[in-house]
Amino acid sequence: MPPKKKSHAAVEVDDVGMEVDAVSEDDSEEEARRKTKNRRAKAQRKPKRVSDDEEEEEEEDEAPKRKARKKKRKPQDSDEEEDEEDNRSVKSKSSKASRKKAAKEESDEESEDDKKKKKNGGKAVSKKGKEEQNDKKKGNAKGSGGKNKGGEKDKKKKNGNSSSSSDDDEESMSEGEMAALKEEVEEKKKLIATLRNKPWRMQRRLIQLKEAQEFVEKFEGALGKGKGRKWYAYKVMMTKKLIKFKRDFENFKTACIPWERKIKEVESHFGSSVASYFIFLRWMYGLNLVLFGFMFGLVVLPEILMGLPYGSLPRKTVPREEQATAMDYAVLFDFNGYCKYSFLFYGFYNSDRMIGVLKFRLPLSYLLVGVGIFGYSLMVVIRTMARNANEGGDGAEEGQFTFSWKMFTSWDYLIGNPETADNKYASITTSFKESIVDEQENQKDENIHLRRFLRVLANFLILCSLGGSGFLIYFVVKRSQDFAERDNDELSWFEKNEVEFVMSLLGLVCPPLFETIAELEDYHPRIALKWQLGRIFALFLGNLYTFLFALFDEVTAKLEKEKSIKNETIWALNAYYANYSSFYNTTDVPPPDVHPADVIRGPCWETGVGIEFVKLIVSDMQVTYLTILIGDFVRAVIVRFLNYCWCWDLEAGFPSYGEFDISGNVLGLIFNQGMIWMGAFYAPGLVGLNVLRLLTSMYYQCWAVMSCNVPHERVFKASRSNNFYMGLLLLVLFLSLLPVVYTIMTLPPSFDCGPFSGQEKMYDVVMETIENDLPSFIGNIFTYATNPGLIMPAVLLMVLAIYYLNAVSKGYQQANLDLKRKMQMARDEEKNRRNNKDSTNQVMKDLEALLPNKSLIPPPTEEDELEVPDVVVEKSSKSPKIKPGAVANGKGVNLQKEVSLAASNPRGPVTRAPGPRGGNARGPQPGPEKGRGRSAR
Amino acid sequence: MGNKQTIFTDEQLDAYQCFFYCRLHGRYHELAPHLVPMDYTNDPECKLPLALIVNMPELKENPFRNRIVESFSEDGMGNLSFNEFVDMFSVLSEMAPRELKAIYAFKIYDFNVDNYLCKEDLEKTLNKLTKEELTPEEVELVCEKSIEEADLDGDNKLSFADFENMITRAPDFLSTFHIRI
C-alpha cells in the first residue's frame, strides 16, 4: 500500500467533499453523502487506481448540477418522458458504446476473470440500477408513465441522458443513482455477510470478499452507510461474547446436574433402559433431599436445639433396666438402647405446645410435616408425570429419519478426548441397537392367533402363580398368628422365621419365573419390562401386606398393654397423692420425685413402629448390597479369572456375567420409598437414613454396573418419560398414605411419649391451635369447610372436572393422532410424487395392473381364440354327420379349456386382470367369436 | 503471540479478523514449524499433508477425520493449504450456516466421491461410527432403512437434495457438526 497514493486520494476526496458541501446545503441526502465521503476518505486504505478516481470525479461532477435542476424538475416531467423515448430509440447503440467507454477505460478488465468481472459488473449494475431507480422516481412522479419501461431501455435512456447531458435528466439520474448505489452497496454487504455461507474454496472467497469490501468501502462513504461500522463490529463482538457466555452457562448448568456424567456413561454402554433406572434413582434422591429438609429443619432441629435435653424426661431417657446394655453394638444395631430414645424416633419428642424462645409449636409442626411430606410427594410425582407426559412418547421414535439422523448427526465433532470418544462410540452403537430392535419388532410378521393364544396362556400362568403365592403368604401369616399365641420356646427356628423365609423365597423364585413365562408372549422388550414390573409389583404387594399385617398386630397388642400401664400409673399416682396429702395433711402435693429412668412407662407403639421401619430399611439395604456384591461382583470375578482353567467357556456359557436387573431394582427403589413414606411419621430420622442409602446406592450401583455387568442381549430404548415408574410410585404413595392417615385419624397416641401425648387423637393439635391461637373467624371457616354439606358438592365438582378434563384430553389425543396420520400421509404422498419411477411405488403398480389394459388384449390372443372356434365349429359342423357327437363335443370343450388355461397363466408377467376374472371375461368371448366365425363363413 | 508474530498483508487481515486468523495460523504453524513460514506477505505456496493435520487434537478422535481433511483439500488427497485450513474451520465453526454445513457434511460422508451417498458410503459411515460392532445383517438393515427414509427420488441412493432435506430437519445437526478451535 503505497502511502503516497493514499494521501493523494484522500486529498482529492477531501476536495470533493468541500465542493459538495458548498454546493448542496439544502439537500439532506447530499449532506449525508458529503459526510460519509469524508469518512470514507479516512477509512479508505486502498484507493483505487484509475477507474476509481474517475468514478469519483464523475460523481463529483454530477453534484453541482443537481442543485440547479431541483427547481426545474417538476414542470418538465411530461416532456422528459417523450425525450427519453426519443433518446432511447435514437441513441441506443451509441449510448451503449459511450457508456462502456465512459465506465471502463481499462478494457482488459472486461475479461472472464472473476475478480475483474465482478468489479465491472458491479459498476455496470450500479449504473443500471441507478437508471432503474431514476425511472421509477419519474414514473412515480408522473403517475403511470414510466413504470413499464424495460431494463434495456432504461439503460439506453440513461446513457442517452448522460451523453446528452440535459439538465433534468442529469438531476433525476443522480438522485436515482443514489438509491441504486445504496442498493448495490447493500448487496455487497450482504455478500460480505453471507460469504461464509458460500460453498466456495477459500481462494475464491478471499477474492470475492476483497472486491466486495473495496466496493463497499468506496461507495458506502458516498451513501452515509458507514457510520455503523464500529458499532457493527462491537455488536458482532458482543453477540459472540453472549454466545460464549450462554454456552458456558449451559455447561455450568449441565455440570450442576449431579451424576450426569456417570449416568451418561452407563447409558452409553448399557442403553437408555438401564440409565432410566439411574435417572429415576437420582430423581428419588432429589425428592428425598427435600423431604429430609422439611423433616430435619422443622422437626428434628427445633427439638434438638430448643427442646429439653437428653435425660430430662422419661421419654428422653433410657430406662434403668436397659441401661446396662444400652450401648452394646448388637442392641444399637437393632435400634434399641440409646437409639430408641434419640431424636430418630417419635417417642423422643416432647408434647409441650411451644418450645424455646421462638415459641415453636413443635407438635403442630410435627403433624403438619408428617402430612406435608405426603402432600409434597404427591404434588411432585403428579407434576413430574404431567411434564413427562408432555414430553411424550413411550420411547418408540416416530421421527421420519430415525436411522439417517443417527447415521449423520450422532457423532459429535467436538469430541477430542479419547475417553469421551470411546463412550460416544459405545453410545452410538447402543442407540443403533435400540433402534434396530424397534425396527425388527415392527417388521416382525407374526401369527396373530398363535401369539394371542400364547399371551393368554402366559397371563393365565402368571395369574396362577401370583394367586398361589398370595395364598401362600396368607396361609403363612395365619400360621404365624397361631404360633404367636404359643410359647416362644416350643417353636423351632423355622417356625419363628417362617414368614420371612417364605417371602424371600417367593421374591427369589417368582421374578425369574415370570420372566421365563413372559418369553412366551414375545413382546417388545420395552413392553415386556412394563409387564414384568406390573407382575412383580403385584407380588411385592403381598410382601407389603404381610408386613403391615404383622405391624398392626403388634400395635394393637401394644395399645392394650399401654392401656393397662396407663391405668396402673394413674392409679399409682393417685395413691401417691392420697398418701402424701394424708401423711403431710396438705393439699399442696409436690410431684413425685422419681428419676426419669425409673418412671414406669408405656410401650410407646409409635416408636415401635418406627423401629420396625428403620430395621426393615436397613436390612433391605444390606440384602441389596450383598446381592450385588455376591451376585454380580463375585460372579464376575469367578467368571473372569476361573475361565482360564475351566472345562467350558464360563464367559459365554452357563454362569456368564450378570445383566442389570432393571425391574427388580426399580421396584426395590419404589417399595423402599413406600416404606420411607410410611415410616417417616414414626421415625423422623428415617428420611435422613434414606438419603444416605440412595447416595451410596448411586455410587455403588454405578460402579457395579460398569464393572461387573454386561449389556442386555437386546438393548432397548427406554420410554423417554419414566411415567410407568412414576405411576407405580404414585400407587405406592397412595398405598402408604392409607395406614398413616388411618393411624393419625383413629388410633390414640401413646400417653407418655411423643409430641401428641396426652391427647385423645393426634389431630387434636390442629383443633387446639385453631381454637386458641387463630382468630375465631378462621375457626368458623374451618367448621364450615369441614361441613359435609360443603364437602360433598366439592367432591362432586372435582369429579365432574376430572371427567371433563379427561374428555378434553381424549379429544386432543384423537386430534393428535389424526394430525400424525395426516403428516404421514403427506410425507408418503410427497415421496410418491417425487418417485417418478413407478417401479418403486407398489400401490400404483398394483392399480395399473388392475386396469383393463386394452393394449394387452392383443391381436395374437384374438387369433388364438379365432382358431379355437374354428376347430369347434368344424367339429360341430362335422358332428351331425358322424354319429357320436358327444365325443366331439367333449373334445371341443377340452380344447377350449386348454386354451383358456394357457391364456390365463398366472405365472406370466402381470399384464391384465387377475386369473379367475380373466378366465371369466374370456369365457363368453368365444361365443360371439364363434358366431362371427360362423357368419364369416 | 509474542515473538512469533505472523505477518500478513493488510488485505489478508482485512479479510478475516486478525484474532481468528492469527490463532488459526498459529495452529497451522504448530503442525509443521519447519514448513510453514511466518511471513505471509507474498502468498507463499505451502501445503500440509493429511497425516499432519489429522493429528490435531480437534480431529484426532473423529472417525471421519480423513474424510474431513480430504473434502476440504483442493486436490482431494488431503493436502491443505492455509486457506483451505481456514476454510475447514470456518465451515465447522459455530457461525457457519446450516446449508453450508450440510454441503460439507455431504462431501464428508460421500466416501467414494461420486456426489451420491450410496449404500457403500453408508456402510462405511456406520462402521466408522460403531467401530464395526454391528453384525453385517444389522448394518444392512440400518443402511436400507436410512436410504428408505431419506431417499425421495427412489434411486436407492441419496443425492444432495435428499441429504439436505433430511439433514435440515435434524435437531442436533448444528450442534454436533461443529468444531471449536
Question: How far apart are the termini of chain B?
Answer: 16 Å
Weakly predicted, low-confidence segments of chain B: 1-6, 9-16
SSE topology string of chain B: HHEHHHEHHHHHH
Specify which chain pair forms the largest interface.
A-B, 55 and 63 residues
Integer tally of domains of chain B: 2
Topology diagram in text:
The complex is a heterodimer of chains A (937) and B (181).
Chain A (H helix, E strand, L loop, with lengths): L2 H21 L4 H16 L6 H23 L4 H27 L10 H29 L8 H14 L2 H28 L7 H22 L4 H29 L3 H47 L13 H4 L5 H5 L28 H30 L10 H8 L8 H26 L4 H38 L7 H4 L1 H24 L3 H60 L20 H38 L15 E2 L2 H19 L4 H24 E2 L12 H23 L18 H9 L3 H10 L2 H47 L7 H9 L8 H20 L6 H19 L11 H8 L3 H11 L1
Parallel strand pairs in A: 1-2
Helix pairs in contact in A: 1-2, 1-3, 2-8, 3-7, 4-6, 5-6, 5-7, 5-8, 7-8, 10-13, 10-15, 10-21, 10-22, 13-23, 16-18, 16-19, 18-19, 19-20, 19-21, 20-21, 20-22, 21-22, 21-23, 28-29, 28-31
Chain B lengths: L9 H6 L2 H14 L15 E2 L1 H5 L2 H4 L4 H8 L7 E2 H10 L6 H12 L9 H12 L5 H15 L9 H8 L5 H4 L5
Antiparallel strand pairs in B: 1-2
Helix pairs in contact in B: 5-7, 7-10, 8-9
